[in-house]
UniProtKB/TrEMBL annotation:
One of its GO terms (cellular component) is glucosidase II complex. This is alpha-glucosidase. The lineage of its organism: Eukaryota, Fungi, Dikarya, Ascomycota, Pezizomycotina. InterPro entries: Gal_mutarotase_sf_dom, GH, Glyco_hydro_31_AS, Glyco_hydro_31_C, Glyco_hydro_31_N_dom, Glyco_hydro_31_TIM, Glyco_hydro_b. PANTHER family: ALPHA-GLUCOSIDASE, BCDNA.GH04962. One of its GO terms (molecular function) is carbohydrate binding. Residues 1-29 form the signal peptide. Residues 95-329 form the Glycoside hydrolase family 31 N-terminal domain. Pathway: Glycan metabolism; N-glycan metabolism. Its EC number is 3.2.1.20.
Length: 959
């Protein structure tokens, strides 16, 4: 939900207006005046000015930072030293640590000595922590910090340099220049990432405010140093200016991806103006942006300051671990070929410039060389995607709001009547008693347990909204406990902070406090959240946090959190601290009942993937928003948070039938597949749509359900190695330059399924780009497409989802339509086999109970399917554990009921049966084979009926 009104329009009338249900939707575009431009943000402007000054000086510019060689020590994988920043009147000491990690990543940390020692004074009697914020890693980093045992100083370093060899086979090297300070990261002798190459390193050190006599000018422009006002709110800045900035250059790289969340293309654009470029830097300052705009570097609800640079056959990356407001400028420069060196081609360098308002410089550098290695190493640090409960990958039906418990039951019954599968129905905030979370509105939801029990009959779930703002109302038990225990966020004067949100006057729970986690935990127990059952899960919204009357619709930066950190220091991790608390709470709502939590979060930071799914917030029912959802979801995936989706149908406004239909056909490719709608929109549950659209939408949802085994396998892969669930073209074909900027088609896991949803009005074809010279088959009729490095036009009438299968794959499916995914648990499988040029195919399947953590103790099935020399076989990829035998027993009766082989060898025309050999069986058996001849451009195919081999068993089918 979450569709906040801009502060200026927030009035007491608001709730009245909602009650009357006649809220007028004003413009369709974002209110730019509610959000800062770079020029309106003091530190952004200062860092850009600093960059402009440097580039104006050109060769004459020299960065004022030096590494003092006398301080350099290298021990046990850590290089330490002191950077000296020389200003007109002082030398500022900045401790530096460069750690070389076993994973091949390197970490560069720069802090400020005076701040570390607490040797500064705060203005306005502030009680804020004197250190630079150094606890982001507590919320973000979960591993991967083991230092390399083999990293060594390079004895052959040039004078004025310290060089460290590290990484796999010592193929990486950090070349650290002392003066001016800079680092070149090399792989195989070639430089891939450069720090301070352009001399934009800038750490605004602490200094006292000097009150000058009237008329005396300060040496520098101090207008944004001590105080900043925006939208009627003044930030008191008790520590003065304290930003950190650094330029990071990727020589020879012309694409950079990542740094979500922005409604923009996958390949990030330049940001310093010029045709087709942005004028503003990409901003990361988690915000509730009402009616956000497309093709924009504006900030949105979440932030992951992780970037990949990609060129043919090489991917590298950086992760800027800083929780404060952050902006990134991107400029690409082309170095012309030297006219004397024949054959040399021009090359593009991508120069990025990162700056954050506060905190330390804490940067991880990844040298790849492939996108998969980057995903793995980054995932080791921030954690891999949570393997969700199986229901969570089905279809979610949401709207603001289902108005009564009877309404919920009726929607549930209608889905059954029209035979449309779904797994989860959602309640937005109106289920609560007067917007008090952990309560139910007594008149409209008198029987919440009856409602959940009804849903449970078809293994369906309920998700309800719980937000971090707590209504300020006497007698509300959550509010009373919050205050009694001192668990609320405070303002700069130390009083409980009060702002406006859905309930009106509210306080905010401060999840940075470890004691809050156990309290939050207790609130979710069945005996405290009365009326909640075990099939209820949680949606954490508005956790940027959204504050209707706050600056930029969020909290004042000088608010105070646990640990005496200013809101400025922690803003971007604020959202995940709530999710973290909710995750702990859902783990064990009743003693002994341990289930995987399901949480949807709107605000996020790196690490959120361990705990939650995300959606792209309050989009609009337009074709543009439908199109934008694909690069946004893909970008989240490569940035380590692949359990992502957009509101199907568009949140604001009413989609027409064509748009809604196409949106479902696209939405089935979001890892998180949920329809949602604003309170002012017309009802649009799929069964309400007139024919033929209803049937087309139902078929799309059924296609999702048919492929759930492939989806769950892709989720599993993401959960063990960080590979995105849906993958963009460059990720799958990192050597094919033609595909690097393509962000409107996607691959599902490693299945070879290539989808290109239709996102344009009235389109009835889709041009799918194919990178290699394998055959690709239309998923539905096996029409063959072949030809590398070009686009192929595929028919896409309204009823059709453009979808190809690459040759060489084995895809597990379940073909029997059911009401929910839970009811498909014991259904048999179909395997679809497409052969590659060598007549071989590969695939895999992961399956477990979809609910508990028993998979961590061997309670799962993981098979590899292989087709080679006319034999289809199933081998075990799993490792045995204490729960293996028990799980296999429950799956004993689950078999493969059908094998479809597309484009089989011609000789199969003569065959009428195959031989089935199951491990442990005394004899082999025969199963019938039916051959279907090629027709026109459609490939032939053969079907093995009822081989009935066990899904958890080792077997062979001989053709
Ligand atoms: C940029 O240069 C101008 C003119 O020399 C100076 O006044 C200003 O302080 C500089 N800005 C920064 C951020 O270095
Ligand atoms: C939640 O935060 C705590 C404290 O930082 C941490 O120990 C725990 O691992 C986090 N939980 C998850 C699921 O990341």
């Amino acid at each position: 939900m979450a569709r906040s009104r801009p502060a200026s329009r927030w009035t007491l009338l608001f709730s009245l207006v909602v009650l009357l249900g006649c809220m007028v939707i004003p413009g369709w575009t974002v209110k730019h005046e509610n959000f800062k431009t770079c020029a309106q943000s003091g530190f952004c402007r200062r860092n850009r000015d600093f960059a402009d000054n440097a580039s104006a000086k050109g060769e004459a510019w020299s960065s004022p930072y030096e590494l003092d060689p006398a301080t350099v020590h290298f021990k046990d994988g850590h290089l330490t030293g002191v950077l000296i920043k020389t200003t007109a009147n002082e030398k500022v000491l900045l401790p530096l640590t460069v750690s070389f990690l076993e994973s091949g990543a390197a970490r560069v940390v720069v802090d400020e000595e005076k701040r570390l020692k607490g040797d500064i004074e705060l203005r306005h009697d502030s009680k804020a922590n004197k250190k630079r914020y150094d606890e982001a890693e507590k919320w973000v980093i979960v591993g991967g910090l083991e230092v390399s045992k083999s990293a060594t100083l390079n004895a052959q370093a040039e004078t004025g340099f310290t060089q460290v060899l590290y990484g796999p086979g010592d193929k990486f090297q950090a070349v650290i220049r002392h003066a001016p300070f800079g680092v070149d990261f090399q792989r195989d002798g070639q430089t891939h990432v450069q720090l301070n190459h352009q001399g934009l390193l800038n750490l605004e050190h602490w200094r006292p405010k000097v009150d000058r006599p009237e008329g005396e000018e300060a040496g520098e422009d101090e207008s944004t140093w001590w105080e900043e006002t925006f939208g009627g709110n003044t930030d008191s800045k008790p520590r003065g200016p304290e930003s950190v900035g650094l330029d990071i250059t990727f020589p020879g790289y012309d694409h950079v991806f990542g740094i979500p969340e922005h409604a923009d293309s996958l390949s990030l654009k330049e940001t310093r103006g010029g045709s087709g470029n942005h004028k503003e830097p990409y901003r990361m300052y988690n915000s509730d942006v009402f009616e956000y705009e497309l093709n924009s570097p504006m900030t949105l609800y979440g932030a992951i300051p992780f970037m990949q640079a990609h060129r043919k056959s090489s991917t590298v990356g950086v992760f800027w671990l800083n929780a404060a407001e952050t902006w990134v400028d991107i400029v690409k420069s082309t170095t012309s070929p030297n006219p004397l060196s024949l054959g040399a081609s021009s090359k593009t360098n991508t120069q990025t410039h990162w700056f954050s308002e506060a905190g330390r410089i804490d940067l991880f550098v990844f040298l790849g060389p492939s996108p998969k290695e980057i995903s793995k190493t980054y995932g080791e640090l921030t954690g891999y995607t949570q393997l969700p409960q199986h229901f969570a990958i089905g279809y979610h039906q949401c709207r603001w709001n289902y108005v009564t418990d009877e309404d919920v039951k009726e929607v549930d019954a209608k889905f059954d009547k029209y035979q449309i599968p779904y797994d989860v129905i959602w309640l937005d905030l109106e289920y609560t008693d007067d917007r008090k979370y952990f309560t139910w509105e007594p008149l409209t939801f008198p029987n919440p347990t009856g409602m959940q029990e009804k849903l449970d009959e078809s293994e369906r779930k309920l998700v309800v909204l719980i937000d971090p703002h707590i209504k300020k109302e006497e007698g509300y038990f959550v509010q009373e406990e919050l205050n009694k225990k001192n668990f609320a966020v405070r303002n700069k004067d130390g009083d409980v902070y009060e702002g406006w949100c859905w309930p009106g006057a509210s306080n905010w729970v401060d999840c940075f406090n470890p004691a809050v986690i156990s309290w939050w935990n207790s609130l979710h127990k069945y005996d405290r959240f009365k009326g909640s059952l075990s099939n209820l899960f949680i949606w954490n919204d508005m956790n940027e946090p959204s504050v209707f009357n706050g600056p930029e619709t969020t909290m004042p930066k000088d608010n105070m959190h646990y640990g005496d950190w200013e809101h400025r220091d922690i803003h971007n991790v604020n959202g995940i601290t709530l999710v973290n608390a909710t995750y702990q709470a859902l783990l064990e709502r009743k003693k002994g009942e341990v289930r995987r939590p399901f949480i949807l979060t709107r605000s996020y930071y790196a690490g959120a993937q361990r705990m939650a799914a995300m959606w792209t917030g309050d989009n609009q029912a337009t074709w543009g928003h439908l199109a934008a959802s694909l690069p946004m979801v893909l970008n989240n995936g490569i940035s380590g948070f692949p359990f992502a989706g957009a509101d199907v149908g568009g949140f604001f406004h009413n989609p027409d039938k064509d748009l809604l239909t196409r949106w479902y056909q696209a939405g089935i490719w979001y890892p998180f597949f949920r329809a949602h709608a604003h309170i002012d929109t017309r009802r649009r549950e799929p069964y309400l749509i007139s024919e033929p659209h209803r049937t087309i939408i139902s078929q799309a949802i059924r296609l999702r359900y048919q492929l759930l085994p492939a989806w769950y396998t892709a989720f599993h892969e993401a959960s063990v190695n960080g590979i995105p669930i849906v993958r963009p073209q460059y990720y799958v074909y990192p050597d094919d330059e033609e595909g690097f900027a393509i962000d409107d088609q996607l691959y599902l896991g490693a299945t070879g399924l290539l989808a290109k949803p239709v996102v344009a009005e009235n389109a009835n074809t889709a041009d799918i780009y194919i990178s290699d010279d394998e055959k690709y088959y239309d998923y539905f009729d096996f029409t063959v497409y072949q030809g590398a490095g070009k686009r192929h036009t595929v028919p896409a009438p309204q009823e059709k989802v453009p979808l190809l299968i690459q040759g060489g794959h084995i895809i597990p499916r379940k073909d029997r339509p059911r009401r929910s995914s839970g009811l498909m648990r014991w259904d048999p499988y179909t395997l679809v086999v497409t052969l590659d040029k060598n007549g071989e195919a590969d695939g895999s399947l992961y399956v477990d109970d979809g609910e508990t953590f028993n998979y961590e103790r061997g309670g799962y099935i993981h098979r590899r399917f292989h087709f080679r020399e006319s034999v289809l076989s199933s081998e075990d990829l799993g490792a045995k554990g204490p729960k293996t035998a028990e799980y296999l027993k429950t799956m004993d009766g689950v078999t493969v009921e059908r094998v479809v082989i597309v484009d089989p060898p011609k000789e199969w025309r003569e065959k009428s049966s195959v031989t089935v050999v199951e491990d442990g069986a005394k004899t082999s058996s025969a199963a019938p084979l039916e051959y279907y001849k090629q027709q026109g451009k459609k490939a032939s195919y053969a079907v093995v009926k009822k081989p009935n081999v066990g899904i958890g068993k080792t077997w062979r089918i001989e053709f």
